[in-house]
From TrEMBL:
Protein kinase domain sequence ranges: 59-335
Keywords on record: ATP-binding, Kinase, Nucleotide-binding, Phosphoprotein, Transferase
Nucleotide-binding as UniProt keyword: yes
Pfam families from the UniProt entry: PK_Tyr_Ser-Thr
PROSITE patterns linked: PROTEIN_KINASE_DOM
Keyword Nucleus found: no
Protein name stated in the entry: Protein kinase domain-containing protein
GO MF annotations, alphabetized: ATP binding; kinase activity
Chain ranges passing through the membrane: none
């Protein structure tokens, strides 16, 4: 897998045009009131408990892919031998505050939003069951795994990380940026709230898609208001940390390093702001990267990490900067 090579061939449409932006492949938000929005898309099937158990061999331990505080993920096989990831949710009833709906209604709303997301860089919902006894969401299965594991190696295994090339890292960054831009601006406006390298999934050809749909939080979507700028900018900050991981090969927090390097953004951002990219670059890259391109990607990360949320770029702007300032200039021989 580490020897996989990617050629980056696509057109750059700079800030005056949005044809190459995430919005270009967006599914328009449905018209109408909140009741229509809460309807789950007809092409995303509801699966029975029996079908889910058959697909996962009764949620066998041998099918377990990952376990977290909010879900367990199992490998599933759908009709036609189609592979999928079955995310069995751990539902916690929200605290009553006079306005929160019960957990089942909230889950249905989230599934309704996820079912309508259509973008090349957002993991697609394939099916669901939201009954109280077995709440499960089925998604596309990432054959390569997560960006976190590709960069750092699986935490639960002694497996090595992949040796991602510079071109592969930048392509992954662009894919992920476009996926987030779509969520923020083009479809039913949602913020992700959990942007991190383990929620960037890698598929065939190391193409990246944003995952983590069960933690999406709709922001006034039922009232047809745009996504909260502050919350979207929080996603932008988190994406800046992901860019630093791609640049440095380091984890967001690593207490095995010297104390002043424990927190990745606190250590790397000042160096990159001063143009000292060679002190930050992942040693695994050796000299196989364009210094000018690395510096530009680092400066994009620094913009994402700005202390003032309103001074951070939108994700659509981030995607276009990566495309125009990093990838296209590298293709045209700017080193």
């Amino acid at each position: 897998m580490g020897g996989c090579s990617i050629k980056i061939r696509f057109q750059c449409l700079c800030p005056s045009s949005k044809d190459d932006s995430a919005a270009a492949r967006a599914t328009p938000a449905p018209s109408g009131n909140s009741r229509e929005v809460a309807i789950i898309a007809a092409d995303v099937p509801k699966l029975t408990v029996r079908e889910l158990k058959k697909a996962t061999d009764k949620f066998s331990a041998s099918k377990l892919i990952a376990r977290g505080a909010h879900a367990e993920v199992f490998r599933a096989t759908l009709p036609g031998d189609r592979a999928a990831a079955a995310k069995r949710l751990i539902i916690r009833t929200p605290e009553p505050d006079g306005s929160a709906a019960d957990a089942g209604i909230i889950l249905k709303q989230q599934v309704a939003v996820a079912s309508r997301l259509r973008h090349d860089n957002v993991v697609r919902l394939l099916g669901y069951n939201i009954t109280a006894d077995l709440p499960v969401l089925l998604y596309e299965l990432a054959g390569v795994g997560t960006l976190h594991d590709a960069l750092h190696g699986p935490e639960e295994e002694a497996a090595p990380a992949l040796r991602l090339s510079w071109e592969q890292r930048v392509r992954i960054a662009l894919d992920a940026a476009r996926g987030l831009a779509y969520l923020h601006e083009a479809a039913l406006p949602v913020a992700h709230h959990d942007v991190r390298s383990s929620n960037v999934l890698l598929f065939e050809g190391l193409r990246a898609k944003i995952a983590g749909h069960n933690v999406f939080k709709e922001l006034e979507v039922w009232n047809r208001r745009p996504v909260s700028r502050l919350t979207a900018k929080s996603d932008v900050y988190s994406f800046g940390v992901v860019l630093l991981e791609l640049l440095t090969g380091r984890k967001p927090f690593d207490d095995t390093l010297p104390r002043d390097q424990h927190i990745l953004d606190s250590w790397a951002a000042p160096l990159l702001a001063e143009g000292r990219v060679e002190e930050c670059i992942d040693p695994k890259l050796g000299d196989q990267y364009p210094p000018a391109g690395a510096l530009k990607l680092g400066r994009i990360a620094v913009q994402c990490l700005h202390v003032q949320p309103t001074s951070r770029p939108s994700m659509d702007t981030v995607a276009r900067l990566i495309n125009c300032d990093v990838i296209m200039q590298h293709q045209h021989g700017v080193v």
